[in-house]
Specification:
Helices cover 39% and strands 20% of the residues. It is an alpha/beta fold. The protein is globular and about 75 Å long.
Length: 589
């Protein structure tokens, strides 16, 4: 099956000479089909999907998942965990506080419980504000004193050299499962390192997130426990049900929805609504999704934010309980509490974004002369600064780091843009940091207050050397040109075969050329922040919604425009019709 995003491997990216209202357009087409070819075929070709690759992409199978023994460290880790579970040794699952980490923790918890119901098993998730991301040497020492003999990390630990030394000194076997960028130099001294992208020991699909890595370890635990590749029915059904938790982590962690991730998400999303995990079903019900098949967007915008909320503003223990031991009644109680916490998170986030936008403007960080935003403010909750970073990146198209106060340190997160690998940028500034690490596009860090000016200068210099000024614009990619007349419900519905959509496999975007805005445009929403209009030709018009375009009505009202749109099929009273979401537009003469 294709292991890289078909979009990332596009070899002929063509720019569009005139920008739209919101950004620069470009076609992601790999090759050009004949204009007469059906729309689905043209879109498939634009994404580099043809022949056997297309069949595998459109019809993924669980048989396309790689043998878990290929994942470095998995056999050694599974053997030790199995011996500990059966021998009565205390095992502690040490997870991260985001959806990926909580889902990964729950996957291992359910697996070990199923294999050895009497195992001495506990879970530990650090407090985001009090302890911060990753392994804590103090927590490791405390867990060892409380009797832990094996500690298995999920979604963290690959850079935790000092906590690993503490574990070794305490006689604890530390098993690290992680997917974040490995550090330069030696790895932590651990019993086993389970990681898809260790230098020299690469796995066929190196992009696995924390929950997917945990799923592979769970799979190997099951085969090792049964002594055969053909699993007993109970363990086989367990692994099928755990796909739902792995899909939560994959979608919420915004990792590429390609390769093995695509397979897991495709089958796991379909199992979320009917999961035997009481808390997961309660979460679905409290999110208003009980009657629907859960899609990737539902995880990204409803389920994921609720699970993340308690970890951002408090402790993620409630989210872990929801996905592990909660009864139906307790699950519903937790799910409703998470909804309230998420509303509080949204209010807190709005305040941070407003303050950060104003501060960045006042400090001259949003103009063409500065290509990075680095801000610190003691008022900002460290649990929401990462989301606020993403908002600022979408506004100003440059790397953003926002820091709040955590005790005596500045602690925060960063988000980046194409061309600036954030984890490598932090590594270049390592001498100024107490800690830091992450991915190309997202990372976390801590530093002392007196190091902030030096870090600001060094980070900004690093970004300036790698991000040309002409790249600091929003880039809007479309698949192919289309006409209004060919957007039939059948043609648009066929595009959903490319789902699940997400990072590395976005929704299909089409460019419509010279279409009429059949107004008048109408405001939508309580405050009129959005617009409704109709785009079309003389013979046919399609209802179109433009989210956040409330202030741009005059720019497109009754005009002739080129437009980038996302087509969707809606159903009402048994009738199917095509609707469009307007992404960008530009009036044409």
């Amino acid at each position: 099956m294709p292991e890289a995003s078909p979009i990332q491997t596009a070899s002929a990216i063509s720019g569009d000479a005139r920008p739209g209202i919101l950004g620069a357009w470009r076609c992601r087409a790999v090759a050009r089909s004949e204009p007469s070819a059906p729309l689905p075929a043209r879109v498939m070709e634009s994404r580099g999907l043809s022949g056997p690759d297309a069949a595998l992409f459109l019809e993924p199978s669980l048989k396309h998942l790689h043998d878990p023994s290929l994942l470095p460290g998995t056999d050694r880790a599974a053997e030790r965990l199995l011996a500990a579970a059966r021998g009565g040794e205390r095992i502690v699952i040490y997870g991260d506080y985001d959806v990926d980490g909580v889902s990964a923790s729950a996957i291992l918890y359910h697996t070990i419980r199923a294999i050895a119901p009497g195992a001495s098993l506990g879970c530990y998730i650090p407090h985001r504000v009090d302890e911060g991301y990753g392994l804590s040497a103090q927590a490791i020492a405390d867990l060892a004193r409380e009797g832990a003999r094996v500690i298995v990390t999920v979604d963290c630990g690959i850079s935790a050299r000092e906590p690993a030394r503490v574990a070794r000194a305490a006689g604890v076997d530390l098993i690290i499962t992680d997917h974040h960028a490995p550090p330069e130099g030696d790895l932590p001294e651990a019993y086993a390192h389970v990681h898809p992208a260790l230098p020299g020991r690469e796995y066929p699909y190196p992009h696995l997130c924390g929950a997917a890595v945990a799923y592979k370890l769970a799979w190997r635990l099951c085969t090792m426990a049964s002594g055969a590749e053909r699993l007993p029915r109970a363990l086989r059904e367990l692994l099928l049900e755990l796909l739902a938790l792995a899909a939560l982590g994959i979608v919420a962690d915004v990792v590429p929805l390609t390769g093995e991730h695509r397979v897991i998400a495709r089958f796991g999303l379909g199992r979320i609504r009917g999961s035997p995990i009481h808390g997961l079903r309660a979460l679905v019900e409290s999110s208003g999704l009980a009657g629907d098949r859960v899609q990737a967007d539902d995880v990204g915008f409803k389920l994921g934010p609720r699970l993340n909320a308690c970890g951002r503003l408090g402790h993620a223990g409630a989210a872990l309980e929801l996905l592990t031991t909660a009864s139906p009644e307790r699950g519903l109680e937790i799910a409703r509490g998470l909804a309230r916490t998420n509303e509080e998170r949204q209010r807190t986030e709005r305040e941070v974004v407003e303050q950060a936008v104003a501060s960045a403007h006042e400090r001259g960080m949003t103009g063409p002369g500065r290509r990075a935003v680095v801000l610190a403010d003691a008022r900002w909750h460290t649990g929401v600064v990462g989301i606020a970073c993403a908002r600022l990146v979408s506004m100003h198209h440059r790397p953003v780091i926002l820091l709040g106060r955590a005790g005596d340190l500045w602690s925060g997160s960063g988000r980046s843009v194409a061309g600036v690998h954030l984890a490598e940028a932090l590594e270049a500034c390592r001498g100024m940091l107490v800690s830091g690490g992450g991915h190309a596009m997202a990372a976390g860090l801590k530093l002392r207050p007196d190091s902030l000016p030096e870090f600001l200068e060094a980070f900004t210099e690093y970004v300036h050397a790698r991000l040309p000024a002409d790249q600091m614009v929003r880039r809007i990619e479309y698949d192919v040109d289309a006409t209004v007349d060919e957007l039939s419900p059948e043609a648009v519905a066929s595009l959903d075969r490319l789902a699940p959509f997400g990072q590395g496999n976005p929704r299909v975007h089409l460019r419509l050329r010279g279409v009429h805005v059949r107004g008048p445009t109408k405001p939508l929403g309580a405050e009129g922040k959005h617009l409704q209009t109709f785009l079309g030709s003389l013979d046919r018009s399609i209802r179109t919604v433009a989210w956040g375009w409330g202030e741009r009505a005059r720019q497109i009202d009754r005009a002739v425009v080129d437009a980038v749109v996302v087509p969707k099929v809606s159903e009402w009273m048994g009738r199917r019709r095509v609707e469009l979401e307007l992404v960008d537009a530009r009036p044409v003469a």
